[in-house]
Amino acid sequence: MVFITFAPVMKVTLLQTDIQWAAVDANIRRADELLARHAGSDLYVLPEMWSTGFATEPQGIALPESENPAKAWMQQTAQAHRCAVCGSLAVVDGDGTFRNRSYFCTPEGVSHYDKHHLFSYGHEDRFYTAGNGRTVVEYGGWRFLLVTCYDLRFPVWSRYTQEQPFDAIVVVANWPESRQTAWRVLTQARAIENQAYLIGVNRVGDDPYSHYVGESVVVSPRGDIVSRCQQTEQALTVDLDLDKLRTMRERFRVLNDADRFTLHL
After folding, report:
1. Burial per residue of 226-262, b for 16 or more beta-carbon CB atoms within 10 angstroms, e otherwise
2. Considering 86, 105, 149, 229, which one is annotated as catalytic?
3. Which residue in 228, 223, 234, 227 sits closest to 186, CA to CA?
4. What's the angle, vertex CA 104, arms to CA 57 and CA 127, rounded to 5?
5. pTM beyond 0.70, yes or no
6. Considering 83, 86, 115, 229, which one is annotated as catalytic?
């Protein structure tokens, strides 16, 4: 079996799902159906806590990694389709803490990122433990910075640095309709200031707390909307061009003039 080694043009599919509350098996089936209808992509991205909904009270909902069928599905899908699959899950870590953990599964293995900025307004911080480090995943010659929902509001956390360079930001989210303007503006802002593609995947539908209208999006390094989902469950496929990104950065050297700093964690 030959795995992807370099993809100057990466085909990315956004899986904007209507998540059923705490219905892990049903949400896996729906994700599998959507993905199967859009076979052939290099990377598939799901929303935040795509298998359960945004469970701020995770007792009885979050599962240990070793027993989590959603994580197993992501790994098996990456192997079977020779692709990468990204999305976050509510998990119980090995030390017994709850984590909002984004996985980036490839045929070669699994990387993860634990959400750093917990959504205190929604009491996520009462039960979850924040992650303390950024994660940049290299896949197919691309470098992806993993970001989860509320992290999007904090530009320093997503800042391109010489120590941790990246080509694209992947944001998985449960971002409610009541704050949709912020979603539209911040996804473009993070792309512009970092001269990077931004892949933002939100959900649609309802949970016990909020209503969601999706508008998952791919933003170019210039801040242009490459493509945006409608306000309904759907899959959307977009091509990202690494050569165009590199040419833009070389011609318009904003990143060379950026402040030099180190994130202190």
Report:
1. bebbeeebbbbebebebeebeebbeeeeeeeeeeeee
2. 149
3. 223
4. 15
5. yes
6. 115
Q: Which of 48, 71, 86, 229 is the catalytic position?
A: 48
Note if 124 is an active site residue. no
Tell which phi-psi region holds residue 195, choosing left (phi > 0), alpha (psi between -120 and 50) or beta: left
Q: Is 48 a catalytic residue?
A: yes
Q: Tokens 């933003």 — which residue? A: 219
The question of whether 149 is a catalytic residue gets the answer: yes
Give 174's contacts (C-beta < 8 A, 6+ positions apart). 19, 47, 48, 49, 53, 54, 149, 202, 203, 207, 210, 212
pLDDT tens, 84-139? Answer: 999 999 999 999 999 999 999 999 999 999 999 999 999 999 999 999 999 999 99
